[in-house]
Specification:
Blueprint lengths: L2 H5 L1 H22 L9 H12 L5 H32 L8 H21 L6 H11 L4 H29 L7 H12 L1 H11 L1
Length: 199
Amino acid sequence: MSLDILLDPLTIIKTLGLIGVTFIIFAESGLFFGFFLPGDSLLFTAGILSAQGYISIWPLLVFCFIAAVLGDNFGYAFGKKTGPLLFKKEDSFFFRKKHIEKAKIFYEKYGKKTIIMARFIPIVRTFAPIVAGIVNMEYKTFVRFNLIGGFIWSWGMIIGGYLLGKTIPNIDKYLLPIILIIIVASFIPAAVEYFKNKK
């Protein structure tokens, strides 16, 4: 499978269908190597194409929600397993134990909000559940907010794309600029939070 197929939402949907979309949402949500995969743009594009009959809307909504939740759970379990091993490591250029301690304090204060907000921020979306596991965030709390975040993100993106696809004729001609807008917009919540906390 070429890298182009894995990075282009339109190619993923037309080539790999529902199974491909489901796997990529799972991988991007919690597998360590999945941070480079498209998430927001893939779901939104899938919603647009479902409005045009390329893919059925209901299986898309259900499978992507399940994949998002299971992906985050896998990431959490991975973090929980590797967390104790990290604390045994000596500090190095790439790793400092104090960063884990800071992350623990951050998750105790903002953990619930982080699990939901991280869904809408590329790269952060992949690592947030792993860090939650590393800092030993309470699992019941993690699962509750993982379900909420996974639902809002997957259904919101797909339905948003579906409604746009139903409203604007020949919208597939504008897919590239739409995807670029989604990617830029994905970083806005993080920027707002950053400047709020800085103040």
